[in-house]
Amino acid sequence: MFLRHLSLVNYKNFDSSNLELDPVINCLVGNNGVGKTNILDAIYHLCFGKSYFNPVSTQNIKHDTDFFVIEGEFEKEGRTEKIICSFKRGTKKVIKRNGKAYEKFSEHIGFLPLVIISPADRDLILEGSDTRRKFMDGVISQSDRAYLQSLIKYNKVLVQRNSLLKYFAVNNTFDLDTLSIYNEQLHILGTEIHKKRSAFIASFIPIFMEQYAHITNKDEAIMLSYESQLMEEGLLSLLESSINKDRALQYTSAGVHKDDLLFTIAGHPIKKFGSQGQQKSFLIALKLAQFHLVKQQSKTTPILLLDDIFDKLDENRVAQIVSLVKDDNFGQIFITDTHADRTENVVKSIHQSYKIFTL
């Protein structure tokens, strides 16, 4: 699968832009602030129906305009797939595949698999558990639509249960029977989500460890593990035992919405004890493992976006990443960099077709 043509109108800093793309390697070079990352984000937008960097649609419209349109022509399994994503202030976003609009954006997720590696991924280490859950959910959802639907339903029931807890507090009342209905729904959905997250981690960790070893060429004691309240107790039991606590807090304190991924080096949090190079290598290994797992499960080679990949990495680690990209397992790749000469030297060494776009 690859993106053949990309067209932007009023997207972020672009008035209008059209790119005819190489099926293997595309390099976007130029100074900071010229829009290299915005082009990658537009490609991500076409594949996921939202921006990777700013999910607020109105903030992706160019200043002093009222709408944006992103159009992409993909080649997938010998067929041309035309995707258009458009948004106008005051209306709902529209995503069309070959002229037909999706009723639900979730129907589009996984159709065009894609993985992005960006400096913004540092949030996976630095921010709270919600960011890491979104990463985990995003990987699973690309190849498991039933999981995505369970997650959507779980979050809806969670909002309803939290609203009920607030209602109880405001009106100084309590109805255990009504609360039990939500408990049962959360239990069914949450148990299935936990089961699939556990299976995902079991298959993901060996791929992640292999990718990290390739990148660093060192035997560093890094580890990725899954943390969930459901490992110790069933969700229904957890919800019932935390009723008094939830009434006081006015929100649900137990469930899969509290799950987390733990990132460690030598048994300690990589956030505190990992160097910048180790943290970046960890994140790149995480995303390359995502790439290989999505490819394996979807039977389609994802598009790979490498945003400012060479930032804060020493030459040895860059060389290891380049050697990975040479692998025939990779399909279409997009690279952004501020150094045109460095980028061209890298892509020439890969001995594949490429285009360089200077912005």
Structure summarized in a few sentences:
Helices cover 45% and strands 23% of the residues. The chain has 359 residues and is an alpha/beta fold.
Q: Which fold does the CATH topology of the largest domain refer to?
A: Glutathione S-transferase Yfyf (Class Pi), Chain A, domain 2
Sum up the overall morphology in one term: globular
Low-confidence stretches: none
First-last Cα distance: 25 Å
Order of helices and strands: EEEHEEEEEHHHHEHHEEHHEHEHE
Number of distinct helices: 11
Largest sheet: 6 strands, antiparallel
Describe the protein in words.
- The protein is of the alpha/beta class and 359 residues long.
- It has two domains: 1-113 and 308-359, 3-Layer(aba) Sandwich (Rossmann fold), CATH 3.40.50; 124-299, Glutathione S-transferase Yfyf (Class Pi), Chain A, domain 2.
- Helices cover 45% and strands 23% of the residues.
- It has eleven helices and 14 strands.
- The chain has helices spanning 36-48, 123-126, 129-141, 145-171, 176-216, 235-241, 243-249, 270-273, 276-298, 315-325, 340-350, and strands spanning 2-11, 14-20, 25-29, 67-76, 79-88, 94-97, 100-101, 114-117, 222-227, 260-265, 268-269, 303-307, 333-337, 354-358.
- The strands form three sheets. The chain has a six-stranded antiparallel beta sheet with strand order 2-1-4-5-6-7, with helices on one face. A five-stranded parallel beta sheet has the order 8-12-13-3-14, sandwiched between helices. A three-stranded antiparallel beta sheet has the order 9-10-11.
- Helix 4 crosses helix 5 (176-216), helix 5 crosses helix 6 and helix 5 (176-216) crosses helix 9 (276-298).
- The longest helix has 41 residues, at 176-216.
- The protein is globular.
- It starts with a strand and ends with a strand.
